[in-house]
Design goal:
single chain, alpha+beta, globular
């Protein structure tokens, strides 16, 4: 595993965790209608399936969130996957809750090398309620989720390349940022910081080879400003952001095998 400093931003009551801490979280007893799945059970199944699919994990990070006095109630994990890209690695993300605070979630995203920004491009719901037979159905659910992640890798590369090849003027960026504000991707007090980051990027790598600003520049402007966004809410924010940027980049829903907001 790499010795990378975590970029996780946590809710109040949450903290970066080791896998031993994740394993030691006590799963609450089930009720007549709700059967919580231990975080470590999901972790082991996802890790096994990723390996079986030929996806080599180069780093992993975990976060635990305590809510309503349920210690370690919510768990979030990132598996950074080996990639041939020179600019970013793929990241598989997993979320689980022992309460009814979050749905079980898997997602594919990327972590840029130059700025260590994290963004999710495609998210998948594991649409299975925590009912009596959840443990029987879990292996097939995980297998389908990992298969979806593998298929999505090609779509993700296509999306990012489309962003990099779509020039964007400051007036066009201003319009898109306002669209994001109306969609609650960008908070009102972040509109100007995002615009300024687009006009004058912190990293030259966010420009194209000709030094021009593109949709990729704007996407990284948003992720740079929201670098400290909680990983528990980041997937939904990113899904909405990419919906807006896809339209500008002439990418339409249906080009991708899976494109679903969390």
């Amino acid at each position: 595993m790499t010795d990378r400093k975590s970029t996780f931003m946590m809710h109040c009551g949450a903290h970066i965790a080791t896998i031993d801490e994740v394993a030691n979280v006590i799963t609450p007893p089930h009720t007549a209608t709700h059967y919580p799945v231990p975080h470590i059970a999901l972790y082991e199944q996802f890790k096994d399936r990723l390996g079986a699919g030929g996806l080599r994990i180069v780093d992993e990070q975990h976060a635990l969130h305590t809510k309503k006095d349920i210690v370690g109630c919510n768990w979030f994990a990132l598996f950074e996957l080996e990639s041939e890209r020179a600019d970013y690695n793929l990241v598989a993300a997993f979320r689980n809750s022992h309460g009814k605070f979050y749905s079980m979630l898997t997602g594919l995203g990327d972590r840029a090398f130059v700025c260590d920004n994290l963004a999710f491009n495609i998210t998948f719901q594991l649409c299975r309620k925590h009912t009596r037979n959840i443990f029987r159905d879990l292996p097939s659910l995980v297998s389908r989720a990992v298969a979806g992640l593998m298929d999505a890798r090609v779509d993700q590369d296509r999306r990012i390349e489309a962003y990099k090849h779509m020039p964007l003027t400051p007036p066009e960026a201003d319009h898109l940022i306002m669209d994001m504000a109306r969609s609650r991707v960008v908070a009102p007090n972040k509109v100007l910081p995002v615009y300024n980051e687009f006009v004058d990027p912190t990293h030259d790598e966010h420009l194209n080879d000709d030094g021009e600003r593109t949709v990729w520049t704007l996407r990284n402007a948003v992720t740079e400003v929201y670098k400290d966004c909680s990983v528990f809410t980041l997937p939904k924010r990113c899904a909405s952001m990419h919906g807006i940027l896809d339209l500008k980049s002439n990418l339409i829903e249906g080009e991708f095998k899976v494109l679903q907001a969390a």
